[in-house]
Design a protein that fits this description.
alpha+beta, Cytochrome p450, five-stranded mixed β-sheet, 10 strands, 52% helix, 8% strand, disordered N terminus
Length: 417
C-alpha cells in the first residue's frame, strides 16, 4: 500500500526520461523531484544539460568567462534551410542586443543602453503608465467579465514600452505579432514548414528596428532610440546596427515578460484569496510583494548557457561545448534558499533572492520598469475591481516552449455596480 501511495504522489522515476521541456502547464512538481534526485541531468530530447538548484544556477550566471551566453538566443530547434534562405534574402542580420553578448562588447553596449534606460526615463513615464492602465480597465469594467490576458495584460506593457521606444500605438499589434514569432522560433518546437511565416515576420521585425534608428538619426525624439543616437553623436562607441539590436531585444523582452508576469501573478493571487484580500486592503504592500510573485510564478522558467571548457556543475562533469538549460523556475523554489518554496507568501523576507531577472553581468536591464508597471497595474485593478475573481470551470493552458511560461487565457469576473 505504501508503494502504491508513493507512486501516486510522485509520478516521476527518472529525471532525464520524464522531463518534458516544452510542457509548462505545471512544471513545479517535476522541478522538486529533479532538485532532490537529479539536480544536474542530461536531456537527450534537447541535447542539453539541465540544472535545477539555485546555488548551481547562480554560479553559472556569475562565471560568464566559463559559461558563455552565446546560445541564449539561438533556436532550440535549429532553423531549417527554407527559413535560413528567407532570412538571407531579407537581409536579416539581427544579433542579440545584450543577452547573448559577452564583454567587451556587452560592457560597451550595456553602458550606453543603461544610461538611456534608467530611473529618469521611468519616472517621467509613470503618469503615462497610470493613464494607460486605467484606460484599458475602462474598456471592460462595465461588463463584469474579461479575458485578462487578451484584454489587459497583452497590450498594457506594450503600450508602456512603445512610448519609451517611440513606437506609435497603431503599430502595437504588428510588433506584438513579431514578438510571438520570435518566441516560437527561439524557444518552440516548430517544423521547417511551420517556421516559414514566423521567419518572414523576423525579416520585417529587423527592418522595423533599423527604421527606428534611421528615424531617430533624422529627428531624435524624447525616447530610447533618440537617447542612444544622441549619445552616439556625442562620442559613445555604438553602431547603428548595435542600436537596432538593443531595440530588437527591448521590443521583445520589454513587454512579453511583463504581460506574462501580470497574468500569472493575478491568477495565483486570486487562487490565494487570503493574500488578495490583504493586498487589496493595503495597496502599498504590492511593492514589497512584487518579488514574491516574480519568485513564485516567473515569466521565464529556463535560460541557457554554453560551457567553454571541461568543467563541473553540481559535481557533474560537463564537457567543453556543452549546452546548459538553467531551470530558473526550479531555482526560485529551492528549499535551501526559500523554505516552503512551493507556497506563495507575500511576507517572504528573502523573495528578492529569486533568479527571475538573471544574475551577474546579464541582470535584466528593464527590471525596474517591470516592477513599476506591475505595482501600478495590480493596485489599480484591486481598487477599480475589488470583487475580482477567477471565472469558474476554466483550464489554465500555456504556450508550448522551453522558457516562457505564457498563458493562453485568463478569464476573470467581478460585480458591476
Amino acid at each position: 500500500m505504501t508503494t502504491i501511495a508513493a507512486a501516486k504522489a510522485c509520478p516521476f522515476s527518472d529525471a532525464a526520461a520524464d522531463f518534458d521541456p516544452f510542457d509548462l502547464t505545471d512544471p513545479f512538481p517535476f522541478y522538486a523531484y529533479a532538485r532532490e534526485h537529479a539536480p544536474v541531468f542530461y536531456s537527450e530530447r534537447l541535447g542539453y544539460w539541465v540544472v535545477t538548484r539555485h546555488a548551481d544556477i547562480k554560479a553559472v550566471f556569475e562565471n560568464w568567462q566559463l559559461f558563455s551566453s552565446e546560445n541564449a538566443q539561438a533556436p532550440i530547434r535549429p532553423l531549417g534551410e527554407p527559413g535560413r534562405a528567407i532570412l538571407r534574402a531579407g537581409g536579416f542580420t539581427a544579433y542579440s542586443g545584450l543577452s547573448a553578448r559577452i564583454p567587451p562588447d556587452h560592457t560597451r553596449i550595456r553602458k550606453v543602453a543603461q544610461s538611456c534606460f534608467g530611473p529618469r526615463r521611468f519616472k517621467a513615464i509613470e503618469p503615462q503608465i497610470h493613464e494607460i492602465v486605467n484606460r484599458e480597465i475602462d474598456r471592460f469594467a462595465h461588463r463584469g467579465k474579461a479575458d485578462f490576458f487578451r484584454e489587459f495584460a497583452y497590450d498594457v506593457p506594450a503600450y508602456v514600452l512603445f512610448r519609451l521606444v517611440g513606437v506609435p500605438e497603431a503599430e502595437v499589434p504588428k510588433v506584438k505579432a513579431w514578438a510571438v514569432s520570435r518566441a516560437l522560433l527561439t524557444w518552440g518546437e516548430l517544423s521547417d514548414e511551420e517556421q516559414i511565416p514566423h521567419v518572414h515576420n523576423m525579416v520585417e521585425y529587423w527592418a522595423y528596428c533599423r527604421s527606428l534608428v534611421a528615424r531617430a538619426k533624422a529627428d531624435p525624439g524624447d525616447d530610447l532610440p533618440g537617447d542612444m543616437v544622441r549619445m552616439q553623436r556625442d562620442g559613445a562607441e555604438i553602431s547603428d546596427d548595435e542600436i537596432a539590436g538593443v531595440l530588437y531585444s527591448v521590443l521583445f523582452a520589454g513587454h512579453e515578460t511583463t504581460t506574462t508576469l501580470l497574468t500569472n501573478a493575478l491568477r495565483e493571487v486570486l487562487l490565494h484569496r487570503d493574500q488578495w484580500e490583504r493586498l487589496k486592503a493595503d495597496p502599498d504592500r504590492w511593492t514589497a510583494a512584487t518579488d514574491e510573485f516574480l519568485r513564485f510564478t516567473p515569466s521565464i522558467v529556463a535560460w541557457r548557457r554554453r560551457a567553454l571548457a571541461d568543467t563541473e556543475v553540481g559535481g557533474v562533469a560537463i564537457p567543453r561545448g556543452a549546452n546548459l538549460l538553467l531551470l530558473l523556475g526550479s531555482a526560485n523554489r529551492d528549499p535551501d534558499v526559500f523554505p516552503d518554496g512551493d507556497a506563495l507568501d507575500i511576507d517572504r523576507a528573502n523573495a528578492r533572492n529569486h533568479l527571475s531577472f538573471g544574475y551577474g553581468i546579464h541582470f535584466c536591464l528593464g527590471q525596474q520598469l517591470a516592477k513599476l508597471e506591475f505595482g501600478i497595474a495590480m493596485r489599480e485593478l484591486a481598487r477599480r475591481l475589488p470583487s475580482l475573481r477567477l471565472a469558474p470551470d476554466q483550464d489554465f493552458a500555456f504556450a508550448h516552449n522551453t522558457s516562457f511560461r505564457v498563458p493562453t487565457a485568463l478569464h476573470i469576473e467581478w460585480d458591476v455596480t
